Description:
Largest sheet: 8 strands, mixed
Structural class: alpha+beta
Distance between the termini: 36 Å
Order of helices and strands: EEEEEEEEHHEEEEEEHEEEH
Oligomer: single chain
Number of helices: 4
CATH superfamily of the largest domain: Nucleoside Triphosphate Pyrophosphohydrolase
Strand content: 25-35%
CATH architecture of the largest domain: Alpha-Beta Complex
Amino acid sequence: MTQERFVPGHRGPAFVAEAVVCCLFQGNRVFVGRDAGGAPQLPLLDVQAMGLSLKLAHYLGRLDGRHCYGLHLPQGAQPPAGLENLGMRALILEGNDLASALAGQAFQLLEWERTHRHCGACGAPTTAHALDRAVECPDCRIVYYPRISPVMMALVYRKTDNGGEVLLTRKAGYAPGRFTVVAGFVEAGESLEQCLAREVKEEVGVDIRNPRYFGSQPWPFPNSLVMAFSAEWAGGEVVPDGTELEDARWFSIDALPDLPEPVHISRQLIDDTLVQLRNSR
C-alpha cells in the first residue's frame, strides 16, 4: 500500500459524524465508484445515514486523512445508489493497487470474523480481544488471530546455448493457452525452502537448486500470502503430476506462451527471470 496516502491501524472510533472510506461488501463483491478516467475508487459513505453500525465494521486505518472501514451490507439493506458492485478479482485486474489492497484486507478480515464467531475447542461465542486484532474464547482463553495461509511460488529455469528456458505449467480450467508457475501451500513443520523443493518435485518431477527470493503478494481468496522464488533446474525430466496439472513443459525465453496478467506476482516473477536470463547471454 502507498504509505503516504494510507496509514494502517486496527483501532478506530466506534462512531464518526463524517463520511468514511468504505470497503462495503455484498457477499464477495465490493461496491466501488469511478473517477473521471473510469478507474475504480473506494467510495465515501455516511454509514450512519445508511443505518449501518461501525461496531460491525473492521477499522483499516486512515486513507487520505479519512477513516477507512470494511463492512458487510446487511441482508435486506438498500445498496448505495450510484455505485458498482464489482467482484474482487475484477477489481484487482483493473489495476488500482491501493483500492484492491484495502478491499482485499477488508475481505480477509470479514471472512475471518465470519468463520471465528465461536471457539473451535469448546464452541463458546468468541469476543473481541482487548488489545490485538483478534478474538478470544472467554472460557478457554484461546486467542484467534486472522488466518494467513502461506503459498510458495516457484519459477524453475535453466540456461541453454540459446539463452535459457523456463518451466511453465497449466491447470485444467485455466485460461486457454495460458501457462504459469508452480505454486502450493506450505505444510506444517516445513521451511519455505523445503516447501519450494517439495512442490516442484511433486508437481513437475524435477529437482531445484539456488532458490532466489523475488517478492510477495497478499491474495485474498480467501487468505493467502504468496511468496515468489526463482530456482535453477538441478536435474530430472518434466512429468506433470496429472492431478493438479494438465501440462508442464520448458519454453524458450524467445518463444513464450500466453502468460498471467501483469498484476499477478507470477507474471512479475516470470518477467524478472526473463530479464536475468537475457542479460546473461
